[in-house]
Amino acid sequence: MGAKIPWPAAVQAPHFTVALSGTIGGLYWNQNRCFSTFLYEIAGVYATRIPEPVTSFFPEFLWSGASGGQELHLTFDDGPHPEWTPRILDMLGSAGHKGTFFCVGENVERYPSVFERIQDEGHSWGNHTMRHESGWSTGQYAYLKSFLQCEDITGSGLFRPPYGRMTRGQAKAIAMRSRIVMWDLLTGDFDQKRTAEQCLTSTLGHLRPGSIAVMHDSDKASPRTPGLLAGILHEMEEQGWKGSALDMPGHP
Ligand SMILES: [Zn+2]
């Protein structure tokens, strides 16, 4: 499998790539490994389940939970945020659900009491790097340093790469210390061109037990996330589904 296969330039980036928003996909092995690639164009259609061929190429990542029961996993990236995280915590708390918060280290340092509240209320949390770097545009050393700095602060054993972007080397190094959590359902709450109602409609078409859904506790997503979350929680109540926190390795 050593021979180079002339793939288009776009898929020859020196990366083992996982791109999960917008254009998806791309696998790259070199030299003594084989080349393979796949591209998924979802062209602005969010809340699309990540297709099976994508997830099966990366079996070492966590893409979804068990589909047999009544549990699903709501995850919130980019906080803690002094306004939006408490609002989300209030909504989850009054509906009796738990979630998972992938925190940016700098925000944990800025808002330690919000981070404590996540912990105190029985949710789980994960590492989302120190400064929300994209793995594709950050060197190996700097990326791993950012991962370790955030891990020192959060100590969760769960990691989600910002933008879903990592190089093969970064993923390999991080997987030795942390469970890498992706998702199978993009709600699109980060998309400033969409309304909460549009996000909700597309999300409800795909939400089911076992889902790992991505939302954000951030200013950028704030015009959509509370309305979207309210609709999701309503549907969960109707269906008898339970929001449960992802298990953190090494935590009871
Ligand atoms: Zn993020």
Note the main attributes of this structure:
single chain, alpha/beta, TIM Barrel, 2 domains, six-stranded parallel beta sheet, two-stranded antiparallel ribbon, 8 helices, 10 strands, disordered N terminus, binds zinc ion
Model description:
With 252 residues, this protein is α/β, with parallel strands linked by helices. It folds into 2 domains: 1-43, no CATH class; 71-243, TIM Barrel. 32% of the residues lie in helices and 13% in strands. The strands form 3 sheets. Strands 3, 4, 5, 8, 9 and 10 form a 6-stranded parallel β-sheet that branches. Strands 1-2 form a two-stranded antiparallel ribbon. The protein has a two-stranded parallel ribbon with strand order 6-7. The longest helix has 15 residues, at 140-154. The protein is globular, with a radius of gyration of 18 Å. The structure holds zinc ion. Zinc ion is lined by residues 77-78, 128, 132, 162.
Distance linking N and C termini: 44 Å
Portion of residues in beta strands equals 5-15%
Spans with pLDDT under 50 lasting ≥5 residues? 1-47
Present as ligands are: zinc ion
- The best one-word shape is globular
Largest sheet: 6 strands, parallel
Total beta-strand segments: 10
Mean pLDDT rating: 82
CATH topology of the largest domain: TIM Barrel
Q: Briefly note the structural class of the backbone.
A: alpha/beta
Question: Helix fraction?
Answer: 25-40%
Total helices: the number is 8
Alpha carbon gyration radius: 18 Å
By CATH reckoning, the class of the largest domain would read: Alpha Beta
Order of helices and strands: EEHEHEHHEHEHEEHEHE
Number of domains: 2
What's the CATH H-level superfamily name of the largest domain? Glycoside hydrolase/deacetylase
